[in-house]
Amino acid sequence: MISFLLVADVDSTLIKDEVIELLADAAGTRDEVERVTARAIAGEIDFAHSLRARVATLAGLPTSVIEQTIAQVRPSDGLPELVAAVHQRHGKIAAVSGGFSQVLDVLAPRFGLDVWRANDLEIVDGLLTGRVTGTVVDAEVKAKSLQEWARAWSVSRNNTIALGDGANDLVMMDRAGLSIAYCAKPIVRERADVSVEIADLRHVIAYLPS
Q1: CATH no. for residue 199?
Q2: pLDDT tens, 100-113?
Q3: Could you tell me what percent of the chain has a pLDDT over 90?
Q4: For residue 177, which of 61, 84, 123, 154 sits 20 to 30 Å off, Cα-Cα?
């Protein structure tokens, strides 16, 4: 029986990086992307609009940059310990990301995550088109993912935990039984039940059900 579900954001939460910024390095558009990312995380602009604007700067890049980006990603300190602690307590750990499935599909199994969801970069003839396909993983999709996975594992709302750092995580956090802000923006710290200010995921373990 699954005792609880932890759903975490990915960029700047489970990993130290913002994947879109690593991809933008290859395109020479990092400064532009960083400005849009900062406004989106702070809740100043709509996430879906900001995502499309940032991805548009990647048009024409070869898919080889995805592998290069994966090699650059740095897991957050304490991630292996957090994953192990969740599983030792008969919980499940999931990731829902405003980033990209082409990256998360590789990293999530390495990290030992149970399930995950992210945006799909459109690729044509081996090149990024500068667009995403399908439904954008925005705040509402993150929240619905938490609810969907909780139902699938018969986990009650009270036994769900949402972990994140940006405005795009707030709806998910509002719908979870416990919300944890991780090295988060002020708006997230204000609304979360718990705030972890030390950049080490081992500090999240104390808030897991025993």
Answers
A1: 3.40.50.1000
A2: 999 999 999 999 99
A3: 93
A4: 84
CA pair distance 111, 113, nearest whole angstrom: 6
Look-up of token digits 């619905």: 144
Name every residue whose Cβ is closer than 8 Å to that of residue 147 and which is 6 or more positions away in sequence: 175
Give Cβ neighbours of residue 85 (< 8 Å, ≥ 6 apart).
205, 208
Task: Give the chain's domain count.
Answer: 1
DSSP-assigned beta bridge partners for residue 162: 7, 179
Which residue bears the tokens 């995403």? 132
In this predicted structure, what is the pLDDT of residue 77?
98
pLDDT attached to residue 16: 98
pTM, 2 dp: 0.95
Is 9 assigned a catalytic role? Answer: yes
Q: Spell out, as residue ranges, where the chain has pLDDT lower than 70.
A: none
From 11, 114, 138, 169, active-site residue? 11
> If we measure between CA atoms, which residue out of 160, 204, 154 comes closest to residue 183?
204
- Give the range of the structural domain holding residue 71, as residue numbers without chain letter: 4-207
Reduced to 3 states (helix: H, G, I; strand: E, B; else coil), residue 57 is coil
Q: Judge contact between 125 and 53, C-beta under 8 A.
A: no
Residue with tokens 């990301």, as numbered in its chain: 97
Catalytic residue among 9, 114, 138, 169: 9
